[in-house]
Amino acid sequence: MTTTYAALLRGINVGGKRVPMPELRTLLEGLGHGAVRTYLQSGNAVFTSETADQELLAAELERAVEKHFGFPVACLVRDGAYLRAVSAACPFPAATLEGRQLHATFFAEPVDASRFAGLDQQSFLPEEFRLGDRVLYLYVPDGLGRSPLAAALARPTVLKGLVATSRNWNTVARLVEMTGA
Prior knowledge:
Alpha-Beta Plaits; DUF1697; DUF1697 domain-containing protein; 4-stranded antiparallel sheet
């Protein structure tokens, strides 16, 4: 059975880790994936595969990117059904917000809420976050760039040992659409 996936590459096209999207598409096609498309320049690709193991697909892509580009890049691979579930489970009113006000941080594995216990959420209001299934939903009414909550969440003490990558809600919605979910 063929499944449509989104690959989320972490931290590319910033800080010297340049991955041109045409080369990423060619790389994914070379791995045997079909219907390869990319979205924006920030490491979002959609493809089809017969392989059902998302972790295997991510590891394969990580190896290929490092071999081709010469630097490691963490990759998460999620199927369209998962992305649709993330969108449907959003605890914030996504339809009434601007894309820059809502973000999703995707994790490679489930994250326990105790990791965030040291953050006094009340002190960051009106900014808020909620945990979901391998995702953190972040509401920042003034955008991510000046968000004290986003800065607190990005501290190494909070994210230590986690593979994570964030997308604004416009990108999440587009990936849901592109995966046909």
